[in-house]
Amino acid sequence: MFYKQKNMFVVLLIILSIICLIVFVDSVFIEPYNLKITENTFNLFNQTGEPIKVVLISDIHIASQEKGYLTEVVNKINELEPDLILIAGDSIDYFESELQELEPLKKLNAPLGKFAALGNHDYGIWGCNNPIPKIDKQTEKRLNDLGISVLRNELEIIESNNKRFAVFGIDDAWLCKNNYSNALRNLDASTVKIVFTHNQVSFSTNDTDSKTLVLAGHTHCGQIQIPFLTDFLLEQSGFGKISGGRAKYGDGEIYVTCGVTTGKVRFLTNPEISVIYLK
Description:
Layout: H1 2-30, E1 36-42, E2 52-57, H2 69-79, E3 84-88, E4 114-117, H3 136-145, E5 149-150, E6 154-160, E7 163-170, H4 181-185, E8 192-197, E9 212-216, H5 229-236, E10 245-249, E11 252-256, E12 272-278
Parallel strand pairs: 1-12, 2-3, 3-4, 4-5, 7-8, 8-9, 9-11
Antiparallel strand pairs: 2-12, 6-7, 10-11
């Protein structure tokens, strides 16, 4: 009996070791480099005809990527032929010197525009009263020079395919810069609002309505996705309630993308290019 139990223990140990090895190989060598493209459709206009095709990315974290990776991301985006491109923050990690490495973004193509919001890393530091000099202005200038308009609690009205909507870029809550009430106050209530921001907590659910779609990044979808636990830990750490994907958000909806950063380690959370169809 003892030997049977010992043999069973050895078998279980071998099985567990194999599972751990598979998870390790997948999370370190496979998933971080398996860039996926997701598609979601949101019915905001209730109109027939061609939808507006939006590509959403976030969390480039350029200093953490291998050489040529951002060019690969840009090429994949252009192959999708989007109407509109939104970059939801954290294009860099910490330092102004990284900004030159964003050069491939200059080749992005989108007839309705290319817009970015700033994330906490785009400031170089975070914290509402942190006295260390920030680099947000340098990041903004670099993105503008690359043909990407940075929206800082600002909106742009876009009209295409008989559809009229506002693209509303919100600055980052971790810097206490998400002061968007004035821009929102001047917007007609019936206007469809595409709100994009780095951190979902930057835009309150109280300011949503049925014509609101919030697009965000920041979470990396937890990088290592463990049911219930990942969501709990992210919320407790100030990342918001939604670790990734589509969900109800106040009276509107939200989509949180996993980001394009490889993250070095990922499990059940591939880096992501999000295609959003607006109908």
